[in-house]
Structures are given as structure tokens and as C-alpha cells.
């Protein structure tokens, strides 16, 4: 059974898309299954509409565990000063009572699943990126499909949680949030890895000197602005490669040419992005 709530947001202003929080809300489709007992599930689907980016600001839910997944884009996950990315072949798990922020990188479909009870293999993680198997994808698709009855929805819930519990996990640790200029730049680049603003450009925006901003990056993150930006871009690109070509991924994370992206990726991970993408696809299918 599906219900629909929320108002259609105003059209996005020219330039970068606004978030749902900035727009005052987003359209969401609700699919509740067996919500009385603790073994129910609430599936929420946020369709790409109105030029608005779906976001879930930093918050803590003390009542339900949450799973986030996007079939057609990348999600950025923040825990204090730590960031991670999940593409269409991955889901994000956030345990009940854990503070986290989840934001789509563009206008895309986002699914949010809320459960009160989950397998111990999942509950032991505070927050983690999990590989999502084809069977889990099919289960999520069924949960957000109009016309799915409660029995089928609860069966899909069991399949989904079982598959996620058996999936390889990449835990997202918590890093102390940095409220200074380096933290502001880091958060902006996490949400838009393709931003090509230079260090002097960021310094001018933040009314500090380039030397001060560079020192702040080295103090907070233990590396230069350039190194931090490169690593964040490459990390985001790994989540994109399952959906986009190497060339498209390179442009989406701010590289002017595919060759410069391939060289940077290979230096960081010891293999070219094309090989990494093929391995990820093979692992998901196995």
C-alpha cells in the first residue's frame, strides 16, 4: 500500500540544485508494511522531482534503524568530520541512535527504509556502506512498488535484511567535526566533488588568507588542501563507476581529462578505474 505526502517543491534556482531542506520539503511516497509489530518496515521513496536534491540533515533517530539506497546516483554520508560515498551497488546502514547525515549528490531517486528490528550482523555496525546484491535490489524494488501487499512486503523485508547482513561492510567511523574554514571547504567538496574552486578562491570566500586555509587543512586533516580534494574526488568516483563510464566519472568528480583521472586513480589504488569497476560488478553478481 502506498501513500503520498509532501508538497511539490519550487523549481530550483539557476546554478547548483537546492536541497530539499533548503526548498522546505520534498515529495515522498510511503509504503508501510506491518508497522504494529517490531518486524514491520516503512519504505519511503523520494522521486527525482522539481530539480531538488534529496537530503537528510545530520540527526539522530532513537526509534528505528535506517537503510538508504539510490538506484540512479551517489549518496554522500557524513559522520562528524568523516565522509563516505555509496553508489547504486551499495546501501548505507545507520543504526538506531546514531547521528549521521545523508545527501544525494544530484537530483536522483532515493529510497529510505526504516525498521525496528534487524539481524545482529547489521546492528553491530553503527553506520556502514554495504554491498547490495541483486536479490536485495529486487527486494527494495518490490517494497516501493505500488500494489505490493503486506505479505509480499514483509517477505521482501526478510530477504533485504538477510542479504545486507551477509554483505561485505565498509564501516563509517566518526570523526570530530571541524567548524573552521577547512571544515567548511571539506563539507562543500564532499557534496560537490567536481567543484574546481582553487585554494585562493576558497580563502577569498571565507575571508582568510590562502596560507591560513592551507595550515588549517594540514592541522585538521593531516594533509594539504590539494591532497584532501584529490582523495575525496577519487573516493566519490569509486561509487560512480558502477553507473557511469570512466570518462563521465572523471568529469563528474572535477577532472578535465579522463587520462589525468586514470593516472590519479591508479596512483591511489594500484589499478585503473576500469579494472576496479569490472571487479566491483563481478563481486556484486557472485
Automatic annotation (TrEMBL):
PROSITE patterns reported in the protein's UniProt record: HTH_ARAC_FAMILY_1 (PS00041), HTH_ARAC_FAMILY_2 (PS01124)
InterPro entries linked: Homeodomain-like_sf, HTH_AraC, HTH_AraC-typ_CS
A Pfam family it matches: HTH_18
Record key words, sorted: DNA-binding, Transcription, Transcription regulation
HTH araC/xylS-type domain segment(s): 183-279
GO molecular function (one): sequence-specific DNA binding
Domain of life: Bacteria
Name of the protein this chain belongs to: Transcriptional regulator, AraC family
